[in-house]
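Reply to dn_fold:

You asked what the input looked like. This is it:
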Amino acid sequence: MASYFDEHDCEPLGEGETPNHMLHLARLLLDTGLSAAWEMEYGRIFQGQRKVPPASKKAVEDLETKVVNPTLAAQGLKCPVCLMDFDEEDELKILPCKHQFHTKCIITWLEKVCSCPVCRHELPTDDPDYENFKKQKAQAKQREHNLNTLHDSMFG
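and this is what came back:
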């Protein structure tokens, strides 16, 4: 039977040597799949300074379009981006969150970021890393919800 040191391809510490605890922690995190959780925590600590990519071209193309009719124009609604009234015959784009914008205004916005300027609802992007980050964030939120539910069922 091989020794621990042979199995893990490492040398025992010499006399007076101390282990590198940070290296052990880093290996533990990478081996257990917690690196995504640490990336999210880093994002939370630094206020999400991760660059948000633009919305995918397909998502923008698939947005519902409508023309302002006299009834809608009479309501005096404004575009949340340019703050101008919706006039008759203006073309509007409607996001999945149901917020409405002048087509030119929202297209310009979505070429820079993938979220609604009113409620921050995110549209899909063409950035696989960002999509993976969103998926990991959703999974972490679901895990937290499951833990809270379990805790409440046991102690509630």
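The CA atoms of residues 22 and 72 lie 61 Å apart.
Hope that clears it up.
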